[in-house]
Specification:
495 residues; globular; mainly alpha
């Protein structure tokens, strides 16, 4: 088994486990233990910190991945690692000073619609600093192709932390203030852990240090594009807290979490495929690049398509289950949000590793243009759609932005590299997903409990979808994995 397959499998298991914990937190513990206002408050604050984090890291984690494999000496590699530690301090220190001296102004502005936010603004900066350095040191592990432990700390750790804190809060061992303080402590503990692991895997010498102008230039581009990208990801929750009642953030967060499960296979694969794309580009292996793009596109679409069907066909029963467990029915107003965002997630999955190719190539400047354009579009569209259509408006804004700028990325790679992510089997897979969705969505089972209906429908989806993918031979890699499973379980004889 190759390094991509092996680490992708480990990372997928880790991310699925993380999402399982996240599902318990997001769908049951947060709604059941915290009221909608406190849940919305935590979500809004973390959204703001996610927007700030790329500014503080200055994109150096991406600079590491792009340039490390092309460094010609040990001294140059060590310089790059030291550069990644020092550079963010030139932003973190002045940003912290500005934040402290303007705390009152910032707090009043962000809490103008929801006064609860006022007393917890400090969490935004503190979490963003710890997350920035976590991402930097996680990149230290990525360049060594050691992603499994870092992926665990990135995906499983924060969800487990919130799970534990919610239980402690439920048993009244801590109050809400204690919850926020321990959340911050937990994030910094994670940062220290990844730092220790990174230094163990990378033995650096500090007797030589030289900065390349290309590193600064690239970091500057990625800093701006990453900031813009983070705006796209979290601007919806931030603006919902600004224009609507804070509980709407909770409703929207649950919907986004459900749809985000579609991202799991891609998040697992991209942890390891990013440095491989960088190597292929640095060595001008364009056939290898095309192979990585097409395989990642097809295989991600097939796997993500199964998750898309499991979510969208079961969505009403999923919300019925949430209501049955928590006794709260208000969250179901976000069902249309799940459907719209799920479509955007599936489209993004079909692009495969196209973002990695652009980011690691000499055309990385286009990412800045795309990101700024996306951020400005998201900002304007969210204002219009949220004010006029509420939380479903935020989903529409996201779908429009993702559709337009993904098309532009496809055109860029097609023009500059003469490759595309799509093959005939990709379009066959899309037709298969659409057909199964419309057929199974028309089947209504109302005589059983929500969990029973979800199990029945999910088994039907998996049997039908997996069988058709296997017999239509859509992907050789996936068929080989399925065939191996069938042989080991005795359902198929080995020829």
């Amino acid at each position: 088994m190759g390094i991509i397959a092996r680490q992708s499998i480990y990372n997928t298991i880790s991310i699925f486990f993380a999402f399982a914990i996240g599902a318990i937190n997001t769908l049951f513990l947060y709604p059941g233990i915290l009221n909608e206002k406190l849940y919305g408050l935590i979500t809004a604050l973390l959204a703001f910190s996610n927007i700030i984090q790329p500014v503080l890291s200055f994109g150096v984690q991406h600079t590491l991945i792009k340039f490390y494999s092309s460094c010609n000496s040990r001294q140059e590699k060590d310089s790059l690692l030291i550069f990644s530690i020092i550079t963010p301090l030139f932003l973190i220190i002045p940003a912290s000073i500005v934040f402290v001296y303007n705390y009152e102004f910032i707090a009043l502005y962000l809490s103008s619609q929801n006064s609860l936010i006022y007393n917890y603004i400090f969490l935004i900066l503190l979490i963003s600093i710890s997350t920035a350095y976590f991402e930097i040191f996680y990149s230290w592990l990525k360049i060594k192709k050691k992603t499994v432990l870092g992926n665990f700390l990135k995906e499983v750790y924060p969800r487990s932390l919130q799970f534990i804190l919610l239980l402690i809060y439920f048993f009244e061992i801590i109050d809400f203030n204690g919850f926020t303080y321990l959340l911050i402590v937990g994030y910094y503990l994670r940062m220290v852990l990844i730092m220790v692991i990174a230094f163990i895997k990378n033995k650096i010498q500090v007797n030589y240090f030289k900065i390349s102008k290309e590193w600064i230039k690239y970091s500057g581009y990625i800093f701006l594009s990453a900031f813009a990208a983070s705006v796209i990801i979290d601007i919806d929750k931030s603006m919902i807290s600004k224009f609507l009642l804070i509980e709407n953030v909770a409703y929207y967060t649950v919907a986004i979490f459900i749809a985000a499960i579609i991202d799991i296979p891609g998040r697992a694969m991209f942890q390891i495929i990013n440095p491989l794309v960088a190597e292929a580009l640095s060595q001008n292996k364009y056939e290898r690049l095309e192979e990585l793009l097409k395989k990642s596109s097809l295989n991600l679409l097939i796997i993500s398509g199964s998750i898309f069907l499991l979510i969208t066909v079961n969505i009403e029963d999923i919300y019925r289950l949430i209501k049955d467990i928590n006794g709260i029915g208000g969250y179901s107003i976000a069902i249309p949000v799940v459907l719209v965002i799920s479509v955007s997630k599936l489209f993004s999955a079909s692009l495969g590793c196209i973002n990695n190719i652009i980011t690691n190539s000499k055309y990385y400047q286009y990412i800045l243009l795309f990101s700024i354009g996306s951020a400005l579009s998201a900002f304007g569209l969210n204002i219009y759609f949220i004010i006029n259509y509420g939380i479903i408006g935020a989903a529409y804004a996201t779908l429009i932005v993702i559709f337009i700028f993904n098309i532009l990325k496809i055109l860029l790679v097609s023009i500059k590299f003469n490759i595309t992510p799509y093959s005939t089997n990709v379009f066959k897979t899309i037709i298969l997903i659409i057909s199964i969705y419309f057929i199974l969505s028309m089947i209504k089972i109302n005589d059983y409990s929500a969990i029973s209906v979800i199990i029945i429908k999910s088994l039907s989806i998996l049997v039908i979808y997996i069988s058709l993918c296997y017999y239509l031979n859509l992907s050789r890699e996936i068929k080989a994995i399925l065939k191996n499973i069938l042989i080991k379980t005795g359902l198929l004889r080995e020829k």
